[in-house]
Write a structure and sequence with these properties.
Helix content: 40-55%
Shape: globular
Number of helices: 16
Structural class: alpha/beta
Distance between the termini: 48 Å
Number of strands: 5
Length: 356
Amino acid sequence: MSFSYAQWVAQNRTARYRLSRKSGWLAYCDSGPRVDLPILSRAETALLAEDDLEDYNLARRTWVSNLPIVRTQQVHHAFTVLDQVTASTLRDGDRVRATAVLDGPSGLGKTTVAMSYCRQFHRSTIRALGSHTATGDQRLPVAAVQLGHKTTPKGLLVKLASFYTENVATSINSDRLAEVVLDLVTSCETEMIAIDELHFIDPRTKDGKGLSNHLKWLANELSCAFILTGIGLAKKQFFTEGLPGDEANATAQTSRRSTAIPMVPFTIVTPAGQRGWKDLLNQLEPHLKLAEAEPGVLTDHADLLFARTQGHIGSLTTLLERACGIAYRADIETLTEEVLTRVVLDNAAELSRRAG
């Protein structure tokens, strides 16, 4: 076997990024695409020794578990709006910068879109300005934070500081911690802050309102653009800060400073929706790494795939990952209706399928 699949696995192994830490974020930003994986014919596979076959299938499973981001119309729209919003990073420090909010149900790729965009921003900024500032500090154009359940204003500051350094003195008071964060953001010339899991903030509650106000304060003090992601934020009145209609329109800063980017599932009820769904499937087909998967192997099952996933891209990629795993192990080398039906999906997808 001229191509070493064992070596491919070693060189393209699963990356253990922790994006909420500087080391993980930089590893993610510095990583390149995996080396393409040659596919063997059924006859070539039959000649493999047992260990080589195991290496080959592990390589294929690694590949299909990390499908590329497909530039669908929705992703293209999100990137276009993010470009408009993050143009505010060019404003001088005395001017408030803008906030983009990716909002929608779970399993639609909001976090993936946000992190991919931030990675692109990081790389382009480093290319243009260099890896270090004029004062010699490491340049970090983006900082990433993931909220947790019941995150407090001080907890948010700890999370921000922890992105830059592991040595965060959590015993200091909130005011001093805020100064530490401000110094870190300023010295590293951070232009953008990405905050994930924003649905943990409920501005209709006392604690949620306090954290929401703290976010506004950070936006004023840090002179950064913010990219926020969360589930059902509009329903939780995030944009209106939990205020009723007229009062929200008059006083809610979040609504004026934030640009919503709604993320919705794919649909097949319109011709345009059907085209978009099939375009997505067409772009994913080459990445299945199956010897006998002919062109159209996914689009031929477009209705079945939609019924199983309800147009949620997270459920779709999971379905393909698991279906390919079944096909690899069973030496089927294509995706049939029977294989696609055998996959057990996430609970939400299974419940929706039964209800439908």
